[in-house]
Structures are given as C-alpha cells and as structure tokens.
Aspartate carbamoyltransferase
Amino acid sequence: ARHLLGIEPLAPAEITAILDLAETYVDLNRRTVKHSNALEGMTQINMFFENSTRTQSSFELAGKRLGADVMNMSMQTSSVKKGETLIDTALTLNAMHPDLLVVRHPQSGAVDLLAQKVNCAVLNAGDGRHEHPTQALLDALTIRRTKGRLHRLTVAICGDIAHSRVARSNLILLVKMENRVRLVGPATLMPSGVGELGCEVYEDMREGLKGADVVMMLRLQKERMDGGFIPSEREYYHRWGLDAEKLALAHPDAIVMHPGPMNRGVEIDGTIADDINRSVIQDQVEMGVAVRMACMDLLARNLRAQRGAMASQAF
Ligand code: CP
C-alpha cells in the first residue's frame, strides 16, 4: 500500500507482517545509536493539528532512528492560524518533496482527503473519531508479547467508545484477528450499530469484565462531546472506573491497558495504572516507537519500489 490511513483496509496477514517487523525493532530500539538506514535520504514531516505527547514524539524518534530527516511542523505558529486550509497547507509542503507525511487532525476523514492530494506516503496519526491505526498496532504488539498470542482472547474495551478512534481501530483489528471483543460503557457513550461490527456491548462494567484477558481503558473525551451527556466524574468512576474490585472479576492474569493520556481517578485508579504486575501502559508507549518504525520502513520500501518501477519505465 502507498499510505497507512486505517486498520480497515489491512488484511490479517498484513497486520502480522507489520507486527513481525516491529518485533525486530524492539530490542534495537533500547540502544541509543541510529539503528537502520531504512529511511536514509528521506524526509519525514509531522503535521499535528491536534495535541499529542506519545504519538508525535514516537513518530519523531522512529524516523530519526531509521535515518530520516524529520521536521515537526508547529501548527500553532503556522499559516493555518491565518486561515490557510488543510489542503493548501499540505500542497505547500508537498512542493518541498517530503517522502512521508504524518498527520493528526480533529476531523474524521481529513487525513484520507489529504492523502489524495499529495504524492508522498501519508500515515494517519489519528483523525477525529475515525481511526488511529498505529495505536491499534502498538496495542496489538503489546498484547501479543504479553499474552503470547493475538487470537482467541477476550478483550474488554471500556469507557467513552463513541468518541474514540482508538476503540474503533482496536475493535476492527481485534475482530480481524479472531478475538472476542466486548465494548463496555454508558449507553450514551456507545455509538449506534457497533453490534454489527462483530462485538458484544455491555453497560454493566462488572458483567463486561468477567473473565476478560485484556482490559483496555479509555479517557472521557470531553473535547468531542459538544454539549451531549457528560456524567459527573464521581458517578462515572463509581460505575465505569477501573478499581481493584472490578478488576478482580477479570481473568486472574488479565492485563490492563490505556492508550493515554490518562485521567487518574476518573476512568482508572492510579494504583492499578502503576501496578507493574497488571498494567502494561508503559510497554504500550515503548512498542509505539517500534511499530511506527515498522510502518514507515514498509511504506518507504513501497515508495522506493514504485520510484524504481517509474524510473525503469522512463528508459
Ligand atoms: N495515545 C495517543 O494517541 O496519545 P497522544 O494523544 O499523546 O499522542
């Protein structure tokens, strides 16, 4: 493929190939030298129209560790503030001949639209409520490494499902890989029609957690709620916050995940988040660099192959 826009178009074998390549980067990644020349001579531009800590920094590190020239566009100080559109901004950057564009945008579908206008590889770093493919891939790698497999597991994704691109990408990936997925949360934060995506839906968190192998917690995305139902944090924590009593209902070896940023005491008890025997939250961050290295490495190989084919046609 030319771009990585979502999990939806990926076949299970392609997901496995990305995870296998990422695995080869996990150990290399713990050393501080430049590890590979997979992106040597290539330029990577990161355009984040929405705040990020983990995704932006790990894409930057991943590009540098693969030998790319990496530029972070500061969207706060760019001409977007003077009214320049997303497409005009992208076309301007495209004229500087980047090889890889990493884009996060608050509108669902904005990254797909941009990918149609540029002639480099585009990686979706999160678009609205639509998809966050590298997050689902790094979560999959974390699960596979911790549980020893990525199939026939029961995964409970809990919280604000309606506004979460992380939930959507994870649901699509986990169902493709033949896992049992439960979506758990208030009915008001559950999108309609999710049952058709091959998952089970629970409003009662205690029921939803019973026997789960993986418990994935999500943040309440108040910035996307535009006046809809927002439960009080106190009530929310009581009914849908992960505490020791609710976690005890999951499988005794269940792992706890959270994509971050985390609101301690709202969707998760801080002690559980910090419990290294249950929580793999820091592993998720670590896998993020390896997975992003693998995604960019594969797209760069495709780019080089396309350019090679075009050059040979020209003769
Ligand atoms: N998980 C995630 O996307 O985190 P950031 O918003 O910090 O990038």
Summary: The mean pLDDT is 93. The first helix runs from residue 12 to 28. The beta strands are 43-48, 69-73, 100-105, 121-127, 154-158, 180-184, 200-202, 214-217, 255-257. The pocket of phosphoric acid mono(formamide)ester is lined by residues 52-55, 126, 135, 259-261 (CB under 6 Å).
